[in-house]
Amino acid sequence: MPNQQKRRVAIVGAGIIGASIAYHLVQRDIDVCVVERGPGPASGTTGNAFGWVNTLFVDPSDQEVLALRRAATAEYERLAEQLPSAFQYMRRGSLLWKSEPDETESLVEVLRKEGLDVELIARAEFVRREPLIRNVPVCALASPKDMALQPPALASALMAAAVERGAKFFANSRVTSLHTSNGAVTGLIIGGETVEFDLVVLAAGAWTEELLRPLGLSLGLLVSPALLLRYSSDRQLLSHIIKSPELEIRQLPDNMMLVAKSLKDPLPDTSAIDGMGLEMLMRIRELVSGSERIEFEDGVIGHRPVFSDNLPRTGYADGCKGLYFAVGHPGVILAPLLGRLAASEIVDGIPPSGFEHADGSHLRRSYAAT
Ligand SMILES: Cc1cc2nc3c(=O)[nH]c(=O)nc-3n(C[C@H](O)[C@H](O)[C@H](O)COP(=O)(O)OP(=O)(O)OC[C@H]3O[C@@H](n4cnc5c(N)ncnc54)[C@H](O)[C@@H]3O)c2cc1C
Fold first, then answer.
1. What is the largest CA-CA distance in the chain?
2. Residue 69: phi, psi to the nearest 5?
3. More confident residue, 251 or 266
4. Other beta carbons less than 10 A from residue 49's beta carbon
5. Has residue 44 got a pLDDT over 80?
6. Domain boundaries in the chain?
7. What integer is the mean pLDDT of 127-149?
8. Which residues contact ligand 1 via a Cβ below 6 A?
9. How far is the CA of 45 from the centre of ligand 1 (A)?
């Protein structure tokens, strides 16, 4: 098909979700253009994500969310085969324990009942897997297939692969508003200029509502802040993602350690973040033997785009032609699946379906006009 006849699709945002949609769409003979206000891919929340791909933190009574997370984590295996370079520093496996051993035991039991691949390990096995943890728990949940990956590297790899296949990527280009004509979205306004597209995909994460608001639309998106703290280390101390009652921590192949922590309003200022970083440093030293020489580097607040029902929103906007959106949390876990499903819906007109225990309709909830 000659280039000018291809459907022109703009994606606003080169976070992990926008990059994944670009990667999947460009393989379907679509003229893809990604517009990002930051200097490169992962300039938003993806740049400060912890990178844990798992199905552990879902209320098992919420079968919709569970089905979606399972489908999403399974999708990662496909992507890892397609784009091995993006996964070269990936690690597998997490260890988690609660304050009381019976809490850990019942969590393992509940998750195993749901068919999740987790096991309960006792002290001796824990020490074998993570010999440097002090105050070894009586038992822990081991989730061997969990992935620990670098979300910015994955978003960049997805964008690079999309560009290699013909997608255009415009960094440092803030979309000031969506261009509309007769109630339909027909393009983007960037730097005072209108650029026309056949379809606009909003993948602007926590900033999605800013672009919807002038159209009188809202997805009901809530923004949930979280802190990513980084610590330098001169050696490898941890092999797994560790979630103790006090800490969520992992170590990168270059020895850097990451700690993730949810925040509540009011958000801490720079000196309060430094204080939290130092407090966590003490906890790391208490938890990990040999960590005396690690140093606090910095802490950055990220803005997680969440919905009250823990489901993402993706699909065509009801009553507003030319607009598609894909936003939700946990975006790193969901990105490969949402990218593939969005491409399939945009190109083939096939709405998402086929999850075990769910008909996929949860992916397509429409927004309410404000
Ligand atoms: C500390 C922390 C730990 C986390 N850990 C995990 C985890 O372990 N696993 C997990 O799955 N998730 C995790 N998350 C959540 C995850 O980071 C987000 O859900 C995910 O990154 C959202 O991706 P996104 O592509 O939707 O948004 P973003 O990455 O924010 O991408 C949106 C992009 O849109 C761009 N943009 C916005 N407005 C405009 C505009 N007007 N014009 C042009 N561009 C625009 C932004 O610059 C940004 O690059 C964590 C988050 C934090 C903060």
1. 68
2. -65, -40
3. 251
4. 27
5. yes
6. 3-49+152-221+308-369, 91-148+223-306
7. 97
8. 12-18, 35-38, 43-46, 48-52, 174-175, 203-207, 211, 226-228, 260, 302, 304-305, 327, 329-333
9. 3
